[in-house]
Amino acid sequence: MRTRPAFSGLIGLIGLIGRFSSVAAILAGGPVAAAEGGPDRSDGPDGPGDPGGVAVSYLIDVARGRVSLEPGGGTAIIDSSGRKLAEIRGLLAGLEDELADGKLEALETRVLDDAAAVIVTRHVAFDLSRISVHPVGLLKRDGRWLPAPVPGSFENTGISYSPGIARQARELEAWMARQREQRIVDLREKLREKLRQGIAETITPEKLAALSPEELVFTFIRARQTGDLHLALACLGGLEQPPPPDWDKVLQRTTRGFHRPAGESPRWSELSARGRIRCVVSTDPGDPLTIVSVGSINPLERSPEVRIRHYTVLKTTAGTQRLRFPPWLASMEEDPEEADPIDAPLAEAFAGSLLARHPAESFADPQALARSFCASLGQDDFLATLPHLTKATGAEADRLLDEVRRLWREARNSRDLPPMLLGIEQEGATAVAFLCPVEPGNSRIKRHQVELVRLDQGPSGWLVAGRIPATGSTGLDEPLAGRIGEARLRREPEWLRHLGLVAPNPREGGEVAEAPLETLAGNWVAALENRDLAAMIRCVAAGDGREAAEDLMESLGNEIASNRRPELGSVQRAGPWAAIIVHFSAEDEESLDLLYPVLETTAGPRILVGETLFRPDSRTRKFLNRSSWKLLEERFDPEKLEGLRSIYDRFRRSEPETPPSK
């Protein structure tokens, strides 16, 4: 008889927030982001019915290629010859790329009766080369402001038929021409000054000079990862006065690299990828140049290749230092498939360098090491595993790092759940830990999936020495090799008993003691919260045999599949029965209460996890409860269930559990 899952749920929350800041926000110190997918409108005061709002909307339409040049189509155009219309269309088409992204903002508006002119600026992040000014002329017709089709001009609007408006238009055209050049100069200078202020606020020249070349390189990398453009520019010479000779080019390349979409700049994306692990593999000091070579891999890749990047740190005559803009970042293209042969020795040194730069922790016994190592395999950061590893070098370091990386990657495939520690066999200074991957909703202990990890005792304590093949020779001396061979033959029911599972055989007339029940309740909620399958097994009871083991692991797999947060509600007793009531809540799911039946066994109180009961507040939960009661009635005499029924009756009539405040 199969049990049904106690409950399962999954909450996914992915937030992608994109925001673009206007020039005014930049100059006021606000955040900056690159525009994607077309230009954006500023949050300026001009609404869609004002000249400024109309001018900005018109340029957005120009960028998106949706301007109608038919009379009455939204512009002030009049009938014209086909040749003239083609010229205007060609002019607007040429503006599409220039206006393709960034922020459009109406900076100044001048109105002369029924004619107006608006100065619109366009800016992309801190890229000085991408500041542009676009004047737009407008005419008021029938109470509406309509843009002239040619920016900066009132051409082809029929103003020659109205002398008064024609004079105003000529005056406004002259004003727009003057403003265009002056505004570009002013905006660039203001933006330069704002950049200098922002850079100076990130780090002092003294702190920058005190960094080692390696620290300077990783400061630049972290700045890219956190999106701190000012700090990155400080590393590249932004604090120097006068600026470096190639500062304008550095500024342009860096701002574009920071703000372009990931697909358009794979090398910048590589630099910002927090999942990549990096390590200095070589430092070549010199005066005035120091070359720092950094290796990196993506541990989530099936067969990651070590990528070597070189950085040049330059000492200046003023006693400061800066990072020379890495030439490989100047290209927006993918890297060639073949690595530079010169970098091959550096790539071979990567694993050993990485292990050497992460000090090993000291573990007093193999049990403490194995528990900590399993927990590290469930961490988001692969670097959390490194303090558990022996400090191997050369090919041995490559082997060890790759074996541990594969174990960590397997945990990523199991929704970041660490493997379950099944047991440890030890002989002297050598031990073997048995690890089993955990799969939410489908947890099983299958012999071919069990991983054997070797643990060695050294002068500083126990450390992980690598993986042992699941079949074939272990390379270990007797008698440890013999015990390993026997453990390999264990099936799921035997492993469950080894982990502390007991059969649900109630002692005649035995009531659940209060203190052990409280301890069990705390252990159960902690195991649920930590999604610790081994700890959950020590809290439950199940029958012997393959089918009982499969039923139990199915129920526990669904318990850890839920993303709801557990909190202990109450514990209750009645006759030989007890129950633990747990309140579950999640941000985007309804809360629920579950009643876990508890029996006193020869090993103390244990939970019957396959017979969990819901508060019957829906048709589905009533159905699941009937299934649980059917299983209970098949296993126990009806009169022996009276105590549990009384607990359940109180549970179903009560208000939902309110966990005690912390």
In angstroms, what is the radius of gyration? Answer: 35 Å
Q: Structural class, please?
A: alpha+beta
Side-by-side strand order of the widest sheet = 1-2-3-4-5
> What value does the average pLDDT take?
86
The coarse overall form would be: flat
Q: What's the total number of strands?
A: 18
Low-confidence stretches: 1-37
Kindly estimate the percentage of residues that lie in beta strands according to DSSP.
Answer: 15-25%
Question: Main beta sheet, described?
Answer: 5 strands, mixed
Number of helical segments with 4 or more residues: 20
The helix content is: 25-40%
Q: Whole-Å distance between the termini?
A: 41 Å
Supply database-style keywords.
662 residues, alpha+beta, five-stranded antiparallel sheet, 38% helix
SSE topology sketch:
Blueprint: H1 23-27, E1 40-41, H2 51-63, H3 82-98, E2 103-112, E3 115-123, E4 132-141, E5 144-147, H4 163-202, H5 205-210, H6 213-226, H7 229-238, H8 247-259, H9 266-272, E6 277-284, E7 289-297, E8 307-315, E9 321-323, H10 344-348, H11 350-356, H12 366-377, H13 394-413, E10 420-427, E11 430-436, E12 451-458, E13 461-468, H14 480-488, H15 492-498, H16 514-530, H17 533-537, H18 546-561, E14 565-574, E15 577-586, E16 589-601, E17 604-607, E18 613-614, H19 619-635, H20 642-653
Parallel strand pairs: 1-2
Antiparallel strand pairs: 2-3, 3-4, 4-5, 6-7, 7-8, 8-9, 10-11, 11-12, 12-13, 14-15, 15-16, 16-17, 16-18
Describe this protein's structure.
- The protein has 662 residues and is an alpha+beta fold.
- The chain is 38% helix and 20% strand.
- The protein contains 20 helices and 18 strands.
- A hairpin with a 2-residue loop joins strand 14 and strand 15.
- The radius of gyration is 35 Å and the shape is flat.
- The model is unreliable at 1-37 (pLDDT under 50).
